[in-house]
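Minutes, project huddle
Topic: does the predicted pose make sense with KG4 bound?
PN asked that the exact inputs be recorded in the minutes so nobody has to dig through chat later. Recorded below.
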Amino acid sequence: MSLPEPVVLGIETSCDETGVGIVRGRMLLADAVASSVDDHARFGGVVPEVASRAHLEAMVPTVHRALDRAGLRVSEVDAVAVTAGPGLAGALLVGVAAAKAYALALDRPLYGVNHLAAHVAVDVLEHGPLPQPCLALLVSGGHSSLLLVGDVGADVRPLGSTIDDAAGEAFDKVARLLGLPFPGGPHIDRVARDGDPVAVPFPRGLTGPRDPRYDFSFSGLKTAVARWVEARQRAGEPVPVADVAASFQDAVVDVLTAKAVRACREQGVGHLLIGGGVAANSRLRAVAETRCAAAGIRLRVPRPGLCTDNGAMVAALGAHLVLAGAEPSTLDIAADPALPVTEVLV
Ligand code: KG4
Ligand code: ZN
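Predicted holo structure (tokens), as shared on screen:
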């Protein structure tokens, strides 16, 4: 006899999205997200205090919205999962406090989980159980990581990460340079469609023979774009925004996909999963598909709404842990802004 599928409420508040998701086992029942992105736009980046305050205001209404969409009463929730880290301290704190309150009030187990592992686990909602092992490339405004994943609930190993800016951060900063709105990724993606990706030969960070194989660096690329744009402006020439966007985007995508495919080959892994907000990038998706097909690697990319931060990913990882019989967290867990990726459950 199989176990009944647990209904898990997942809460995500690590950055600027208040996400509340509800799953039953591997089935997504609801995914409600309230974003404070518009409040940060004029600052050109996420302001932690503004994000925390927005989480506080959005939390309860977003939980209610998710329950309504799932057609459930809160008493029908079997377990509560929450992002315990990594992320912005004050923002995480709001989600962790809310999750503890729901767990205590409902007398249900609490699972404090790792945000990065949740970005991986979310794909089961769309594409079924994860192959073991698989390689995960997580690229967003806050992280750029290559992970070797055995059981996503227990065995996540970092192979490499960015040594400076995250991939999405580079998109956002370059967009700003080009006069495009925040967050810049989708705008660069859009204007790059009319540009020439080989117009400007921007540098590919950390791709030399003696560089770390699985780490990334995007700050040199960002500076190269800034210098190139400044030189044009000094010379009184117009900046070809579409060409610069396409060339910059190509430099990022080239490095991300080359390193991910190389890691799969060297680690003997046949499945690559891409997640995080930058996974919505059309060029990244296209190049990853081509390179994975050429290397015999199966590619899994969740739909864009599940790639950006959301509560469903936390609920998905929570359900995985419940079904695996993992010991729940205690009610005194802390939000940990620097939670290492190896700690899937706190
Ligand atoms: O995962 P996410 O919603 O939040 C975190 O940062 O954790 O990712 C947001 C990031 C932003 O930097 C945004 O510019 C980038 O993802 N992004 C994109 C695209 N859509 C979102 N970057 C490139 N191309 C896109 N289409
Ligand atoms: Zn994220």
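Observations noted during the meeting:
- The chain has a mean pLDDT of 96.
- Residues 15, 140-142, 168, 171-172, 183-186, 189, 276-278, 280-281, 308-309 surround KG4 (ligand 1) (CB under 6 Å).
No decisions taken; revisit at the next huddle.
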